[in-house]
Amino acid sequence: MTMVVGLTGGIGSGKTTVANLFAQYGIDLIDADVIAREVVAPGSEGLIAIELKLGADILLTDGQLNRSKLRELIFSQPRLKSWLDELLHPLIRQRMLTKIDNSQSAYCLLVIPLMVENNLQSLAHRLLVVDVEESVQIERTLQRDLVSEEQVKNILAAQASRKERNAAADDIISNNGDSSALPDKVAQLHHHYLELSQRYQ
After folding, report:
1. Which of 28, 48, 51, 61 has the fewest C-beta atoms lying within 10 Å of its C-beta?
2. Which UniProt keywords are listed (predicted)?
3. Are residues 192 and 117 in the same domain?
4. CB count in 10 Å sphere of residue 129
5. Same domain, yes or no, for 150 and 195?
6. Residues with Cβ within 8 Å of residue 27, at least 6 apart in sequence
């Protein structure tokens, strides 16, 4: 059995940067966002079900899912969002579990942005939270995504609070300042996880 470290954090916290630092040690990354795209790839069970439900005009000309159109539909039809969640969440969960089973590294990193919100920390042996102050989240997301401050605040409101996330964490990496401190923090945790992972060999 492979030890699973769950990695999460709010928008703009630096989850991807931290995940990529772990990957440099040869640690397998299992990223829920990547899997969410895979389960609606052309020819997939997920996309076939969506096309049957919503018609061929939910597809782009190259056969890919028209994500912006789907987002608009979900936004105006809460029932459709529930249907989509019921379709995709089991597919995503199953694929995550398969990837965990197939992981070859000493431990694997399960990256789920809404892990605490969706109560998915049960999939991991430990939970690592990348923590930042809300003001830093807002500033970074505005710079990165070129969206309005109101939109960023709406996203934050829909996510777990800092307090909730940190209360669920086994380990916390603070990323408020300069990211140059991150490699050392990740190195320390990596060695700690290597020691812990021996229990699961």
Report:
1. 61
2. ATP-binding, Coenzyme A biosynthesis, Cytoplasm, Kinase, Nucleotide-binding, Transferase
3. yes
4. 26
5. yes
6. 105, 106, 107, 108, 109, 190
Please, what sign has the CA dihedral across residues 134, 137, 139, 141? negative
Same domain, yes or no, for 23 and 76? no
Instruction: Tell me which residue range forms the domain holding 152.
Output: 1-27+105-201
Q: What is the pTM of this model?
A: 0.88
Binding residues: 12-17
Tokens 């061929």 locate to 56
165-184 as b/e: b if 16+ CB within 10 A: beebbebebebeeeeeebee
What single-letter amino acid sits at 24?
Q
Confidence (pLDDT) at 167: 94
Residues 96 and 15 in one domain: no
What is the per-residue pLDDT across 19-68, written as a single tens digit (0 to 9) for each? 999 999 999 999 999 999 999 999 999 999 999 999 999 999 999 999 98
Q: Helix crossing, 45-54 with 67-76: angle to 10°?
A: 60
Which residue, of 104, 130, 154, is where some domain finishes?
104
8 A C-beta contact, residue 176 and residue 10 = no
Q: Annotated binding site for ATP: which residue ranges? A: 12-17
Cα 101 to Cα 98: distance, rounded to the nearest angstrom: 5
Number of domains the chain contains: 2
Residue carrying structure tokens 């190259």: 62
